[in-house]
Amino acid sequence: MAHGNHEFMLVGYLDDIEKRPLKFVDPIPSARICDACGNIPRSTYTLLCGHILCGTCYDGSATKGGCACPLDGDVCATEDVTSKAFPAENILNRKVHCWNEASGCHVVLPASEVAKHFRHDCQHHRSRCPTCLATVLWRDLCAHLKSGCTEFVLCAVPEALAVTAENDENHLVAFQKRVERRVGEIDAKLAQLSLQGDSQNDKLVDLSHNLNHLNEVTREVRAASVKLLESLDHSVTELKALSNERSECIMASISSVLTSVQYPNMQLCTVTGYAAHKDKALKNGWSNTMGEKVYLRRYYVSWGVAFRNISGSVALHLRLQLHKGQNDEFLKWPFSNKLKLSVIHPETREERHVCAVPDLSQDYVRYYCKPVEVSSEAVYFPNAKHELSHLERDGYVHTDQLSLKMEVL
């Protein structure tokens, strides 16, 4: 079965890609992925509870004579752990995206070759412009600078534009002051030349024309700079608004994704009409309850309890029903997760629980297979039970009701 996520880190394959995130093109089988850390190791360790660990997580869970599963706490003897080493080629030959995908590199190649491509062949490494602070490709940085920071921009920075606009205005003011100072010097020189006689009149006329032209050009430059600053200010405002809008969209998308992929592993419920259920079981042999549909560990299920009368003694058993859900293609089938039914004391909040393991033998496996229609048949667990006489004796029954909790481990 394939895993829904496509980005993982490899452990124990090649130094060049060791513990660096790789985005795979195709899904990775769940049997290759550590259930604890989410990495892909060369060797896996499968515990009796069904969880798969890498070597690091297995060593970190070691106990005397075995290990305790870090996910559900089940203790497993060393001889009951199944270890398996996989060929490295199976993963290294799978196609991955270049690490510079976000910068525009669309190369897809085997995982074993991505580091070489990234170091020697990829032309999409990013850099930051020292002038405008925009993000550009390293290969385009010089061309970007030569263009006056107007071309080859991957990601413009609105704040940087504002700083650039302010710097441009300061440069223009300084330029105008220099021009005015030069005009003053020229006027002084003209005053000296006028004393030298009429022989200099033609030169003075030409110089005066040039000065007038220079002043006209200065006014035009000043007007153009004001217009440019207004345009830049408008662009900065638009970019800020666009940035805020995109940030809101991204946050909404992230929230939607998190909501769709994160599910709880437990649910609380209250069984009312305790006495009526018990009486019905004593009279008819059984009385069943079933709650609403809910996602638990991404499985779409309903759960409840069965009051069963065996030789005049009524016990409380766990019931379960699987439904067709939106995550079925990414889940492990048949359903084999360990279940825990807890009864909660109404005053002390102490919990008394029993565990149930799906019976995957030929006679019962149909209850735990992936639903083909809307729902599978409901099933109860005969060996996971609470004796009602014990619950009544210890005060777990209050105001004709029981407080229950069911967990998918």
TrEMBL record:
Pfam families in the cross-refs: TRAF-mep_MATH
Domain spans labelled TRAF1-6 MATH: 315-405
GO biological process: one example: regulation of canonical NF-kappaB signal transduction
PROSITE patterns: ZF_RING_1 (PS00518)
The UniProt record lists the keyword Glycosyltransferase: no
GO molecular function annotation: tumor necrosis factor receptor binding; zinc ion binding
Classification via InterPro entries: TRAF-like, TRAF1-6_MATH_dom, Znf_RING/FYVE/PHD, Znf_RING_CS
One GO CC annotation: cytoplasmic side of plasma membrane
Keyword annotations from UniProtKB, A to Z: Metal-binding, Zinc, Zinc-finger
Annotated protein name in UniProt: TRAF1-6 MATH domain-containing protein
